[in-house]
Amino acid sequence: MRRVILLLEIGLVVAGLAVAVAAWQQRSALQQTLALSEERLVEVPAGATPGGMFNRLEDEGILHGAFWLRLYWRFNLAQQPLHSGEYRLSPGMRALDLIELWKRGEVVQYSLTLVEGWNFRQVRAALARQEKLEQTLEGLSDDEVMARLGSPGAHPEGRFFPDTYRYVRGMSDLDLLKQAHARLEEILAAEWQQRSPDLPYKDPYQALIMASLIEKETGVPEERRQIAGVFIRRLRQGMLLQTDPTVIYGMGERYNGKLTRADLREPTPYNTYVISGMPPTPIAMVGREAIHAALHPAPGKSLYFVARGDGSHEFSDDLEAHNRAVREYQLKRRADYRSSPAPLPAPDTATDKDSQ
């Protein structure tokens, strides 16, 4: 009996020592400083496990004791998901700090800013430059892109909201476009519900088209509602809108920074020197302020505006006053300058536009 008791005591001592050694090994593994001489990004792929990541980092010489780290996660964080993405590791970081980083899911975020006034071609180019985004839209037509967004047959121009969007590695260009598309739909619907009465729009899409004209013509934010008022009064009186950005958009990549008399008279679906009413689609992305202005035009009588040269405009109620403003602000400064909307015939000389 005494021998059995002795053996039990020895066993307990050995077990206690083993537990103590295991605890020390685990504490040592957790408190170790990662072998990093500079900041490093570590990607956790979708479906990766903590154990697999510990093994990988041990193979790369960044840490040791992966076995003890796996045990720690298994017994303390079994229900904790490991979020995929990139994690930023810094010199001086401990293995325990890495585990805390994984627990919080503190993945590295990137951002992309879509700018008011951009067209869809510029949006796609900006997406294609994002190396951390999975590129899924390359080679697809604009129609195919819209179909993937759940809007088959919709024209893509103006359908996305300009803002700064954050994303993580593993997201796709389509994921980000979905965010921008949904955001535009949300804001347009909200603004439409609060619109002023008696506007000449059949639906929110027409208001979006008008907002894009305002966005491209406005250099001073405070003038958005005034410019909206000019365009709406011209529509109601059956006047051509005669706004240069629509001509430029209709020219596409042929536009070289100059507009000629021939350009102004070229019949395209977007040339508001030729077509009556608004163009068939928006010509750019618009911010909320431009949408609000399109739906809340400023009252007044002005039918014309001309750029002063500082980003602002001089508004006129009639053609005679407008011609005086043109002479004062434009002809004296540069003989070939013209600001839209202006009465036809257009000048013979080539022009460019400050608001572009």
Throw out a few tags for this protein.
single chain, 356 residues, mainly alpha, two-stranded antiparallel sheet, two-stranded antiparallel ribbon, 6 strands, 8% strand, disordered C terminus
Short description:
It is built from 13 helices and six strands. The protein is mainly alpha-helical.
Topology of helices and strands:
Layout: H1 2-31, E1 40-44, H2 50-59, H3 66-76, E2 85-89, H4 95-104, E3 109-113, H5 120-128, H6 142-148, E4 164-168, H7 173-193, H8 204-217, H9 224-236, H10 244-251, H11 261-265, H12 288-295, E5 304-307, E6 313-316, H13 319-331
Antiparallel strand pairs: 1-2, 3-4, 5-6
Helix pairs in contact: 1-3, 2-3, 7-12, 8-9, 8-12, 9-12
Question: Care to describe what's here?
Answer:
With 356 residues, this protein is mainly alpha-helical. Helix content is 45%, strand content 8%. The chain has 13 helices and 6 strands. The protein has helices spanning 2-31, 50-59, 66-76, 95-104, 120-128, 142-148, 173-193, 204-217, 224-236, 244-251, 261-265, 288-295, 319-331; strands spanning 40-44, 85-89, 109-113, 164-168, 304-307, 313-316. The strands form 3 sheets. The chain has a two-stranded antiparallel ribbon. Strands 3-4 form a two-stranded antiparallel ribbon. Strand 5 and strand 6 (313-316) form a beta hairpin. Helix 1 packs across helix 3 (66-76), helix 2 (50-59) runs antiparallel to helix 3 and helix 8 (204-217) packs across helix 12 (288-295). The protein is elongated. The termini are far apart. Residues 335-340 and 342-356 have low confidence and may be disordered.
